[in-house]
Amino acid sequence: MFLVGILSWWYGEGWQARIKIIKERLASSADYFSIGLLITTLFAPFRQISAGSVEGLLADQVRAFVDKLISRFIGAIVRSAILIAGLVMMFLQTVFGGLEIAIWPLIPLFPVIGLIMMVIGWVPQWTV
Fold first, then answer.
1. What is the count of structural domains for the chain?
2. What are the pLDDT digits (tens) for 12-69?
3. DSSP letters of 55-83?
4. CA separation (Å) from 108 to 3, 8, 114, 117?
5. Which domain holds residue 75?
6. How many CB atoms sit inside 10 A of residue 121's CB?
7. Taking the model in full, what pTM does it have?
């Protein structure tokens, strides 16, 4: 009865809980890297507090325009790097999460396979 309860949980609620954990991990990574915010503010000025309009001489306006342009360029580079790092991390989490879900039903069989290997006398080649 105990074994049946464990196996029914493993192939039912346990599997669903594992999928939920993987989804939460992906959502947490998307939140940590602020993927949505980085995409919407990709070309916003980078850490420039006074990004408003500048009035005065033409030289001051041109200087402010160039400052904003450089700030936007730096912001785009930094945000793109963080965005790429976040997407790579989420891709790796998706791949390993998929492997985890695929291997999950096989894990209860590992002790049985090990017992069979022990009984037939199989020894891994690296230990001989």
1. 1
2. 999 999 999 999 999 999 999 998 888 888 877 777 655 566 777 888 888 888 888 8
3. -S-HHHHHHHHHHHHHHHHHHHHHHHHHH
4. 11, 12, 11, 15
5. 2-127
6. 6
7. 0.73
